[in-house]
Amino acid sequence: MRKITGSQMIIKCLKQEGVEVIFGYPGGKVIPLYDTLFDSDIRHILVRHEQGASHAADAYARATGKVGVCVSTSGPGATNLVTGIANAHMDSVPMVAITGQVATAEIGTDAFQEADITGITAPITKHNYLVKDINNLPSVIKEAFYIASTGRPGPVVIDIPVDISTAMIDENAEGKIDLPGYKPTYKGNQKQIKQAAKKIFESKKPVIFSGGGVISSGASEILTHFAQKAKIPVITSMLGLGSFPEDHPLALNMAGMHGTRYANMAFTETDLIIAVGARFDDRVTGKVSGFAPHASVIHIDIDPAEIGKIVDVTVPVVGNAKDVLTDLSQRYFELDNRKSIQKKKPWVDYLMGLKEKYPLMYDKKSPNLKPSYIVEKLYELTGGDAIICTEVGQNQMWAAQFYTYTKPRTWISSGGLGTMGFGLPAAIGAKTGRPDKTVIDIAGDGSIQMVSQELATAVSNQIPVKIMLLNNGYLGMVRQWQELFFKKRYAQTCIRECVDFVKLVEAYGGVGIRVTDKKDVEGAIKKALEIDNVVMVDFWIEGEENVYPMVAPGAPISEMLEWEY
Amino acid sequence: MSHIISVLVENKAGVLAKISGLFSRRGFNIDSLAVGTTEDKTVSRITIAVQADQRGIEQVVKQLYKLINVLKIQELEPANIVERELVLIKVATDAKNRAEILEIVNIFRANIVDVAKKSLLIEITGTSSKVEALRELLDPYGILELTRTGKIACTRGSKRL
Ligand SMILES: Cc1ncc(C[n+]2csc(CCOP(=O)(O)OP(=O)(O)O)c2C)c(N)n1
Ligand SMILES: [Mg+2]
């Protein structure tokens, strides 16, 4: 019986799980692991801050559907991963984070670089492990990947003490999954599905509400088919962007705080919401008591805890979006579809009218450099085929509103946690997983400074991401709230004129382009897309441009602050 | 409203921390929590008394189910269970009032488990209301220490969780 080290076993297990890329950063307690990795054909991308590793792994998973993997050392390395782990948890992203830990005998002694990372991450992981016996290692890794990628996906942390990675284990030791308390439901209850079909048939004013779960379960195609054949309009959540083609006539686009007027009106007037893989986040519902006051709700979700958490549900269906929609579709089309379409026609016509009347707007005639214009141009010049990552703030909302998402996994943004600094490492992760795609980070000048060191990661690993910096000189989204709700008192939100972003990206070996004039937008984007290197285009947009429509915090979504139409 | 939920979990390190953490994180107040192994050594049973409304308790149960090491959960119907708690009460005494206290202890079918010159240690097992009643009666003598196990409960009849 040949023995191998714990580290060798880790790498062996990762390969068995199909891992091709790891995002990570070394340190004392993972030197043995890195030593093994040195001889492995698993690609390792050295980030410049562990937060970058966790975001990159997260976005790699969102772009590819595979489990993203990140690695850090103990203590500060592990705590630096935390934001990215929380981010993946909030957005249900399959990820495995491997952290080094002090030797088993030192645990609990406040040893050098000891942090209780399983304690710290318990609330922000789907599950976590501290490996105290090398014989458990193969099973733990196997279970971690299984848990991360099945049911409602999420991050799993594996904390591995350094003596475990140097201990010896039988080379042929096989892991097995033993999780008696974990049995995700995929198939929906057939009675409930039948009930749902009947409800939809009876409804005169239904809408489908499509969330991130539709994308992660691979249900976009079946959802699109169903909506199209049944002629039911589709609203998406922010994470649901791309789950239904936004250029489709039935698309009502994104709802919520910065959603379209017609989506929010549809929610307010509908008699039936068919929610799929969406969790009724407060950024969607606004004031819950004023949300969808006339609606029954069919809620399809793989996580039973989401059902009834925020809104009362008429027909709950626990299951995987893809399986349930397949069954629902079959049941539904056994009914008289033509009659059903007829019944819903006035509603659909009404919504199509609203869509025409209240499109997303900005001052197109203005000679000034408008962010919405830039994002529209990006859509045009990429043919809608790029993967768009975003930072957080106004940039994110303009990116959500003015690019047209037609395919799943083309929109990668921090939803639940709203993490500034997500976009750049996310773009790196997405481009690593999808080298065939143009990957763009639509960025804000505040957010990018939280992670600008990752420019080094991108350049040195030849990951040619394109950063479109909507530089307004402000922490713009906060400034917008201050303008609207705090009497324009711009406390600590002006960050103008302190960084030369062109020089910054050039310092890292990338290419910088500055655009201050509307007429140069197109040329700059074209050039950025052509150059085979990391490019940052520094767009000096109008400083006090706001995102509209907007639902004031605490208001019902029927009350929108607006453009004057 | 107070609910008692019984949770069967894998008997592994860190599970209790995950469960109690979930309660505080989701904003629920635990009245009491008792934990111990069951007839199967690999399984522990955690009995939790918690304050919540109906929607709240449903969320608690669903969120608990999301924990990977949780095997089974049951919300116990007060009418259909036997509920017990064990409490130790150290009460101050002197020669004058010792007899009085013994009388109270007898009425409650509690036990004296330690006698000292200036104190008695009383053990009582029962429902929370019984324990409460005894505590009230002993209060005037001066309770020096009180420690309780927290509620445990079992359903009546032969059905298992
Ligand atoms: C890590 C983190 N810190 C603080 C915030 C709060 N916040 C939300 S948007 C925003 C401003 C973002 O500024 P910038 O990146 O320039 O984007 P803009 O809104 O100007 O487009 C801030 C500070 C956050 N979301 N994330
Ligand atoms: Mg800004």
> What is the CATH architecture term of the largest domain in chain B?
2-Layer Sandwich
Main β-sheet of chain B: number of strands, strand sense, barrel status?
5 strands, antiparallel
Could you give the order of the helices and strands of chain B?
A: EHEEHEEHEEHEE
Whole-Å distance between the termini of chain B? 23 Å
Q: What's the average pLDDT of chain A?
A: 97
- Broad shape of chain A: globular
Low-confidence stretches of chain B: none
Radius of gyration of chain B equals 18 Å
Task: Give the proportion of residues in helices of chain B.
Answer: 25-40%
* CATH fold node name of the largest domain in chain A: Rossmann fold
Quickly count the domains of chain A: 3
CATH H level of the largest domain in chain A: which superfamily?
Thiamin diphosphate (ThDP)-binding fold, Pyr/PP domains
Number of domains of chain B: 2
Strand element count of chain B: 9
CATH class of the largest domain in chain A: Alpha Beta
Helix content of chain A: 25-40%
Total number of helices of chain A: 22
Structural class of chain A: alpha/beta
